[in-house]
Write the structure tokens for this entry.
Amino acid sequence: MIDLIKIRAQLPHRRIEWHESIDSTMTVAAQLIKDGAPAGTIVGAERQTAGIGRHGHSWHSPTGTGLYVSIILNGFRASANSPLIMLALGLAVRQAVAEVTDLVPDIRWPNDLMLRDKKCAGILAQAEGPFIIAGIGINVLQREFPPEIDASATSLRLCGAFPIAREPVFIALVNAVDEYCQMSGEKISDEFLRTSSYAYGRRVQVDLDGHTLAGTTQGLDPSGFLIVQDDNGQRTTILSGGVRALEIGMKEI
Ligand code: BTN
């Protein structure tokens, strides 16, 4: 079990609910909002039996190895569909990981945290009443992954962060989310453009409704959507994820 005494000592004014095993921290956080929980409330779990990922995927949530956290956001006024909030949360996780390890994850637009071209953390945002719930999963201590995600998933430990514990990652994460959720859209976009190798000049393949677009990234539009230019010079604004790196020599499908 995570050391809640250590965590509460560093985050004394936060309401933190920690569960041994629940379906998803998102559903518990949504219920807490309905029951009147204030912004800033955090729900975490040792294990999720039905962890929710983006695009209808599930989130692998084995006991005691990852951080599975939902935060009821304080102060972020944009809608849950705005990519700026997704970018802000990605930057926050990147900063938290960089602060407590010597690893600096890349961010695949909008907010997949990547180490060695594999995903080490994933984020989703969901509107609930007047609030947005940020759902953050960070693979911290995993030594292995099930075969179906082994090629695409990694953990901080597998990337060399050892020894490592979940508590400092959690504390850094909460502080970084607070910081980035107060930032202006302009600052968020600027920092994303500076830090993500996916922002500009990256050859990518994007799954769109019913077809695949191959092209080169060309930065963000003012709302934080990704712009991709195909080989005929046609520019498309990407409205949701499904972006994958296409390395030179890789077959486009
Ligand atoms: C993604 O697919 O990249 C997003 C994954 C988000 C997973 C986290 S784990 C904590 C929170 N509870 C969930 O059920 N999902 C999010």
Remarks:
- The radius of gyration is 18 Å.
- Helices lie at 4-10, 25-34, 83-100, 147-150, 166-180, 185-195.
- The longest strand covers residues 118-128.
